[in-house]
């Protein structure tokens, strides 16, 4: 069975093709979805990719959250379909209230691009089952508005219920509270994170050469996890 993973393209998406490539490298079938569509073409999982949907007007992800296809994505997520939001996709998940909190301008005010060390805090989600809790991985990060915020009550709940999926190590690149790099919902099928796992899926294209940022292939396991999760339910 070929696991079909849809990748939604919004006006301003930049990394949709990269996400499609990551799906194929993991052994899945990538299905291109359009923001104006009203159906999901029978996909088994969904990726909301990075970029600048609708030019980041209003707030990052705020307009995209009201795109026609998002009503279908929200319904599918609430029914248990695996959904991954990467960078702008994470912002869309928050704006859609599939994940709590908010994302604001980096505390230093600058766009940042770097290879970022993360710790996997929750390895029980549809997108992290190929990891072990406590694994340390390197994933490229590139954002201008990646500072995660939430109320103290929400932060305590996220910590207490194990809903922090990833945490920044070595340096907090954007001022995210409690070094939070990514979250999961209670069911474990929806995951959002600011770093870009689709950019670390193939040797030599991570990139992982001595002359460039060395990201390796840690991101591939995100997509392999989703495929495994779908197949386990068949």
Automatic annotation (TrEMBL):
Pathway: Purine metabolism; IMP biosynthesis via de novo pathway; 5-amino-1-(5-phospho-D-ribosyl)imidazole from N(2)-formyl-N(1)-(5-phospho-D-ribosyl)glycinamide: step 1/2. Its main location: cytoplasm. Keywords: ATP-binding, Cytoplasm, Glutamine amidotransferase, Hydrolase, Ligase, Nucleotide-binding, Purine biosynthesis. It catalyses: N(2)-formyl-N(1)-(5-phospho-beta-D-ribosyl)glycinamide + L-glutamine + ATP + H2O = 2-formamido-N(1)-(5-O-phospho-beta-D-ribosyl)acetamidine + L-glutamate + ADP + phosphate + H(+); L-glutamine + H2O = L-glutamate + NH4(+). The active site is at residues 87, 196, 198. Coiled coil: none annotated. The keyword Nucleotide-binding applies. Gene3D superfamilies: 3.40.50.880. Its EC number is 6.3.5.3, 3.5.1.2. It is found in: Cytoplasm. It comes from the Bacteria. It holds the Pfam family GATase_5. The keyword Nucleotide-binding applies. Part of the phosphoribosylformylglycinamidine synthase complex involved in the purines biosynthetic pathway. Catalyzes the ATP-dependent conversion of formylglycinamide ribonucleotide (FGAR) and glutamine to yield formylglycinamidine ribonucleotide (FGAM) and glutamate. The FGAM synthase complex is composed of three subunits. PurQ produces an ammonia molecule by converting glutamine to glutamate. PurL transfers the ammonia molecule to FGAR to form FGAM in an ATP-dependent manner. HAMAP family: PurQ (MF_00421). Part of the FGAM synthase complex composed of 1 PurL, 1 PurQ and 2 PurS subunits. This is Phosphoribosylformylglycinamidine synthase subunit PurQ. It comes from Protaetiibacter mangrovi.
């Amino acid at each position: 069975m070929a696991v079909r993973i849809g990748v939604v393209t919004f006006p301003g998406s930049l990394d949709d093709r990269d996400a499609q490539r990551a799906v194929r490298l993991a052994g899945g079938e990538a299905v291109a979805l359009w923001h104006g569509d009203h159906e999901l073409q029978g996909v088994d999982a969904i990726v909301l990719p990075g970029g600048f949907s609708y030019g980041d007007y209003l707030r990052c992800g705020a307009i995209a959250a009201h795109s026609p296809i998002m009503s279908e994505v929200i319904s599918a997520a609430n029914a248990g379909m695996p959904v991954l939001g990467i960078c702008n996709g994470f912002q869309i998940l928050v704006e859609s209230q599939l994940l709590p909190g908010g994302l604001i301008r980096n505390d230093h005010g600058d766009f940042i691009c770097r290879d970022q060390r993360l710790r996997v805090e929750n390895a029980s989600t549809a997108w992290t089952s190929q990891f072990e809790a406590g694994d340390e991985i390197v994933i490229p990060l590139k954002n201008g508005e990646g500072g995660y915020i939430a109320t103290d009550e929400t932060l305590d709940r996220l910590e207490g219920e194990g809903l922090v999926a990833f945490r920044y190590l070595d340096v907090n690149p954007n001022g995210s509270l409690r070094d939070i790099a990514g979250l999961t919902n209670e069911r474990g099928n929806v995951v959002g994170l600011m770093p870009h796992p689709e950019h670390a899926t193939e040797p030599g294209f991570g990139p992982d050469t001595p002359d460039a940022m060395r990201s390796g292939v840690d991101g591939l396991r995100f997509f392999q996890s989703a495929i495994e999760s779908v197949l386990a339910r068949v």
